[in-house]
Amino acid sequence: MILNGRGISKGTGEGEVLLLERPFSFLGGVDPKTGRLSGTSGAEGSELTDKVFSFPCGKGSTVGSYTILQLRRERRLPAAIINQRAETIVATGAVMAKVPMVDGIDLALLRNGDQALVDGERGTVDLRGVKGHRVVTSLLMHQGRLLVLKRSDKVSTCQGKWAGVSGYIEPGEEPLQTAVKEIEEETTVTGAKLARSAATVTVRQGENIWAIHPFLFESPTDQITIDWEHTEYRWVQPSQMQGLDLVPGFQRVLADLGL
Amino acid sequence: MHLTRDEESILAGERGPGMQRAMEILVALGRIYDADSLVPITSAHLSGVSYKTIGEGGIDFLEEISKDARVKVETTLNPAGMDLSRWQEMGVEEAFAKRQLTIIKAYGNMGVTTNCTCTPYFTGNSPKPGESVAWAESSALSYVNSVLGARTNREGGPGALAAAIIGKTPHYGLHLDENRRPTVVIEAEVQDEITDYSLLGHVVGQRLGAAVPYFKGIKPDCNGLKTMAAAMAASGSVAIFHVEGVTPRSLDCDLKGLERVRLDRQDIRKAKESLTTGKDPDLIAVGCPHLSQMEMKALASMLDGKRPRSDSPEVWFCTSRTVRTWCPKETAVLERFGKVVCDTCMIVAPIESRHECTATNSAKACTYLPSLCSQKVVCGSYAELMERVA
């Protein structure tokens, strides 16, 4: 799976992901002699050397740029750096020490221990062993209530969880085409009218990343027939979703569609 | 960010690896801050000079880039970790001194003026109103934006060096009019005294963080402005401010609808108390930012004709080499009481090996002395500090 961000410092680097949840200061955050992280990093004792070192953004003293150079001197550099949002200290340090660096990556898609190839020229992160899937999720609305369906044990993923009308986007297909096709197949509803769409939501689950295209349709009816992919369905108020065991990313989809 | 064909060719390495690396730094910064293009600069000022801060990693980088890169505009240096000629008298070890001189040489090879001061605007590197420049050193860049009316972002040392080598900087932030307008009005009532201006700056930075303050009710001279700028940048991250009737663009500012904050002598007194953490200084250090010619004269006249106290701690008057050259008589007076130290200051010199408690009149120094130099601190005015000396 290839994630697209912005190239900050050129070159390519490959290694195991070391992921921090908090902003990181190179000054005080790492011992340049050993590459070992200190307590302030939230991952005390981990070593950043040869890792794909990933954290939300840099912080703290501008001397941090020189700490990166010191790591280079001690041959303790990370293989690459990934930031959610780059700032001056880490970016200039990475360029000076020739560490490949990319920003604009959603760190929620990374896991400690992932094998990643960072391309600082193209601004990409290739997560080896992680599969990407492009799917649609459509919410059908009828008189203020939304259709949710319980996934059967015959589908390949998320069995037993509640979801909208979902399906893989086939090669060459536009997401909206897939959405309309899946609604007809899974509910027999025809003539549903597109009300809204939202930007793609990406979620990580195990070794898979789902790129979900969310749609909201007005359904002319609440009379539907489900196929083998589901075992039950309900028409519910948006507020009644809380109690259901939902597929990953579904809350985000609802929020982004303004529901 | 749009690059011209010429800039693209530098990025591709056609003018050598030094310029290529400099351009890579500018492009990274331009991307991060959504700059539309690079804008030509007329001057640069660099931090990242003291061996104490940049270390061996920094020296490696400077030696690499100085092989073929040269600065294109007037470029000056921030203070180093020692007086470049009198380091032995300061108690600096030879190993440190050698590495410090290696750093200065690398900058010199690139065409940088190796006069190390945080107040280069007093000694020749003085941008004109409206010019774009690339300055590091938070106190100096705030002075340049606010008092001189030139335009610079808060550069780090590497970004400013890259800009000096290319002669351009990414066009964003404080190069744009909309980011230079005041965001808050400070109605201040303080004594017309340099330490009070420093403390005022400290309080404003601490309370407002990265605001653009507009001051009413004060009339600081260039020394007051210099120390205010330094304190505000250290306790907050203020990079530009206005003072009514004093700074060049202050009368064009629109204050409608801005939040107003009142600060008086009580606030100043409390700040002074909170910055004081020690009692018996073994070092008195003034000149943060570096002393101007006027301050050298004022201090010399305070001390002239007096005798050093037998219990006086060590005293440093920190200034630039140029100002010391301009003030031979004053230097002679001051040297009876302490050292007129050039090229360095109490923050970037390794004072922690010889001192435990430092007294100063600068709120900026009071902010950094505990964390960067492990010092206890006494904050006092020039008059209070000189009483301990003579």
CATH topology label of the largest domain in chain B: Aconitase, domain 3
Query: What is the radius of gyration of chain B?
Result: 21 Å
Name the overall outline of chain B.
Answer: globular
Q: Secondary-structure element sequence of chain A?
A: EEEHEEEHEHEEEEEEEHEEEEH
Structural class of chain A: alpha+beta
Strand order of the largest sheet of chain A: 1-10-9-3-6-7-8-2
Distance between the termini of chain B: 59 Å
Q: Care to count the β-strands of chain B?
A: 15
CATH class of the largest domain in chain A reads Alpha Beta
List keywords for this structure.
heterodimer, A: 259 residues, alpha+beta, Glucose Oxidase, domain 1, Nucleoside Triphosphate Pyrophosphohydrolase, 2 domains, eight-stranded mixed beta sheet, 5 helices, 18 strands, 36% strand, elongated, B: 390 residues, alpha/beta, Aconitase, domain 3, four-stranded parallel beta sheet, 14 helices, 15 strands, 16% strand, globular
Task: Please provide a written account of the structure.
- The complex is a heterodimer of chains A (259) and B (390).
- By secondary structure, chain A is α+β, with helices and mostly antiparallel strands.
- Chain A folds into two domains: 2-128, Glucose Oxidase, domain 1, CATH 3.50.30; 131-256, Nucleoside Triphosphate Pyrophosphohydrolase (Alpha-Beta Complex), CATH 3.90.79.10.
- Chain A contains five helices and 18 strands.
- Chain A is elongated and about 70 Å long.
- The model of chain A has no long low-confidence stretch (mean pLDDT 95).
- The N and C termini of chain B lie far apart (59 Å).
- Helix content of chain B is 40%, strand content 16%.
- Chain B has 390 residues and is an alpha/beta fold.
- In chain B, the strands form four sheets. A five-stranded parallel β-sheet of chain B has the order 13-12-11-14-15, with helices on both faces. Chain B has a four-stranded parallel β-sheet with strand order 4-3-2-5. In chain B, strands 9-8-7-10 form a four-stranded parallel β-sheet.
- The relative contact order of chain B is 0.13.
- Chain B has helices spanning 5-11, 17-32, 51-65, 94-109, 138-148, 157-166, 194-208, 222-235, 265-275, 293-303, 321-326, 328-334, 363-373, 382-387; strands at residues 38-40, 43-46, 74-77, 113-116, 134-135, 168-170, 184-188, 213-216, 242-243, 259-263, 283-291, 314-319, 339-342, 357-360, 376-379.
- Chain B folds into three domains: 5-177, 2-Layer Sandwich (Aconitase, domain 3); 181-271, no CATH class; 276-387, 2-Layer Sandwich (Aconitase, domain 3), CATH 3.30.499.
- Chain B is built from 14 helices and 15 strands.
- Chain B is globular.
- The mean pLDDT of chain B is 96.
- In chain B, helix 7 packs parallel to helix 8 (222-235) and helix 10 crosses helix 12 (328-334).
- Chains A and B meet through strand 2, helix 2 and helix 3 of A and helix 2, helix 3 and helix 6 of B.
